[in-house]
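Interim report, section 4.2 (structural modelling).
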Amino acid sequence: MSTIEIKKVTKRFGDFTAVKDADLSVGPGEVVCLLGPSGCGKTTTLRMIAGLERATSGDVIIAGQRMNDLSPQKRDIAMVFQFYALYPALSVGQNIAMPLHYEKLSKDETDKRVMNVARIMHLTDVLDRMPGQISEGEKQRLAVARAIVRDPNCFLFDEPLSRLDVELRHSMRGQIKEVLTGLSKATVIVTHDQLEALTMANRIAIMRDGLIEQVGTPHEVFAKPANVFVASFIGTPQMNLVEADLKSFGNGKAAVRLAGNDIEIAADPAVSRLKPSKVTVGIRPRAFTAASEKSGDTIAAQAELIEPMGAETLIHARTSAGGEIRVVIPREMKVKIGEAMHLRPDPKQTHFFGEDGKAVRA
Amino acid sequence: MTSTTVPAAPPAFTAFSPDNWRLALIAGIVISAVAIAALPSGVAFWITGIMMALVAIAATMNAVRRRYYGGLLVAPAIAVLFVMNIFPLLWSLGLSFFAYQSNQQTIRFVGLNNYIKVLTNDLAAKDNWAALTNTAMFVVFTVAAQMVIGFLLALLFSKQFPLRKYLLILVLTPMMLSVVAAGVFFTYYYDPTFGILSYIMREMTGEQFILMDNKAGAVAGIVFADAWMWSPFVMLLVLAGLVSVPKYLYEAAAIDRVSGWRQFRTITFPYIRGLLMLALLFRTIEAFKIADLVILLTKGGNDTMTISYHLIRIANEQNKTSEGAAISYLMLFMVIVLTNLYLYLANRRTQGN
Amino acid sequence: MVDKVSIWEALGFRKASGVGEAGWGYTLIVAIVSFIYFIPVLMIIFMAIKPQDVALSVPPTLSPTSLFGLIPDAYVFSPTLENFTSVFSRSMTAGGAPEDTGFDRYFFNSIVIATVSVMLALVIGTLAAFGFSRYPLKGNDTYLFIILTTRMLPAIVVIIPVILMFRVAGLSGSYIGIILLYTAFNLAFTIWMMKSFFDELSLDVEDAARIDGSSEIKVFFKICLPQVVAGLAATFVFGLILTWNEFLFALLLSGTDTRTVPVAMNQAVSSGGRGTDWTLLAAIETLFLIPVFLVTFFLQNHLLRGVTFGTVKR
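Predicted structure of the assembly:
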């Protein structure tokens, strides 16, 4: 069975802890993205799975077998490197054939498999060229081709698309997803690009400072962020995270003082367990509706900066308390700079985070 | 270029301006010729020198005004090389067509006779050929030994490990020794009575051991000393190639389960090929000139005379300057042919890939 | 959870992690090899601190210390610094008063001649290499090949005309003469090496600097030179090692005032008909080794990067 499991894996470089107690399991055919800002330990985690880095403690289990002590050669994995790691002295065809030498196939069989993969990755025309003579997109496809030419326990991708331009990235994303779907192997992709993660992954593991903050489906991490960091990291424009005073809770509604306004807003029943305290309220920019006048559940703000984004318009509004709120409204709504707005948050898309930064949810 | 000014047109030949190098050149040649003919050689030399400096200044001014930056940058090097290398080489090339001995005043044009003599004269030619075959033998043995030892040492040092820096300098030290001291000390190490080598052999076999008393032993002794001194040079070049291989290639190879030998052939070797070739070229040229160790270790005895040592004897000890020049030009010819052959092969290899 | 550690790993052989890295166990192996390689040098250094009477003892004395009884007493000598003082001052005749040997002067000569000529070759050669790299002349490769050719001939071929030339010019036995000769001697190597460095640099950066209004001189000094520092250091070390130990030119061209250490060493060793004075020779060589050793050691990091950068084509 093609699975990957890591249990309480920690990696220390001297005094520096790069990864701390990471737990993750990837099922057969599942694609998991490790997502996080640079330096968060996601690449180190991947390299520990590959065996290029040794876990300081914890277990790395691939295909049901503990593999901590095995060299990469013995783990039977395929990996696509960030800088592709193409063998510069070998032609494209020879590069693809490289992982097959281990299996000691006949020449015909090798050629057949190389041709097959080259066809899938659209490399048939450049098989005889050297890596230095092909385009960036072709290099990327070659790196993937070399990984999928054999039948490994699992696939690992380290920032596979980071060197491509926007358009290529878009088309490659689709291609890789398509190829991976056909292979049904456990796959881990490291990326710092949330769009890449959201589109390619079955599940996303979000990392920060060596810790896995949340693991969930793209929908879960977007709709139910586990903490303030995940909430701010996922989604563009970024979620509004506003400091607020929770005053009381009753009838399924929380009374808060938020950005200079006293409002009542429907909240998760779990919020009732909080005592009156400081909380952080998270509201996505698209979760506001503009009301015509002030009421008990609106926030008053003044439009300060207007950024048209095509179908929608992003407005940076200043609240009476001085904070900034980002609001996305449909293109048809016209707002002028300096105009007073009354913003009504959608209670279903409003998140409460306790003082420890964790989401308060039932 | 942001500046749009057009370089000045070249000055007319007769114009008296500081950048008129053609006029300066003609004037310089005329004045120098007159000085050489009429004045004592010491004075004439300096007048010629001043004239050359004047021409150089004019040429420099010309280059500055017309923006021949390339020429300007290259000129000082060419000047030094010309005075100290190329001119003496041409001089001795000229000498090779004359009968001249540095301890006599007479000089006589003999055309190609010197060349014919060193190539065909019974006595001289026999020595020359013997020295040449010995040199070829030394080139093959020393270069092969240096390449192999240097390569193995480089492999040893290509990993990162604690104290690497301090151990590396130990291995590099032989290269820094003066050849005189190293050579003299190898005679001590090889000495039949006091030497460490003979001592060890005596302890092991119970018989006296004299390394240098036959040709094979003498050659082995010289090759060993030379290889010991210069393998670090090869090591340094190869090591530079080895450490330049990006680490991720080896990581990818580990993931792709590429065998050690194939890794070496397809990843490592392409990176060090150029440097190996360079080391081979440098060491071959140097090995062709091997003389000092032979002088110190055997004085050419036991049939270990090399062409370079032979040359020193002929030119310096026997004062047969022009004959020596003829031999060295034949030697240069051989080295150039070899070098070009080598460069041709090296280029074909890289283009073939 | 603690990983099981094998014996190999305990010795420093890590298995899975860190491709291309090794631990203390590996260091031990390399240390043994390096030490064996270093033995001939070590024996010279030990000879330099041996008392003269045991210099040629049989069996050879091998160590200044018994290493806590590890080495039998027959192989142990008691170290002395006497040989170093006699490098600079010793009696030239049997039983005579100590005389100044002039070696301080020879060391000074070696330092001045080697440093100045290598630096000069570096300056002139770097300029030329930049010229050859950026403003190729017609027949550029031919010029470069001719320059290389100057290194292919045995020194003796060049030296006879040079001796005659120096005699005419009154440069025999002067610093200028020998320095210029060594400069030329180092130029070929310097130009070849530095040219390959300049060839590797990205021209875009230079063009960007020109567009920003930098003069050609500024482009060279501010943009190009800082990128080839490693190359300069490597070339300097190679040139220094070769010039420092050069013997034949020095023997035939230096006068009494400009004599360098290798020449003086040769004379000190072979003069007097008493056979080789081993301890003295060893002391001179040991002292003479120190400067190049230190320079090489401190520029070592550049040395490797330098060679790589200059010759590996991507």
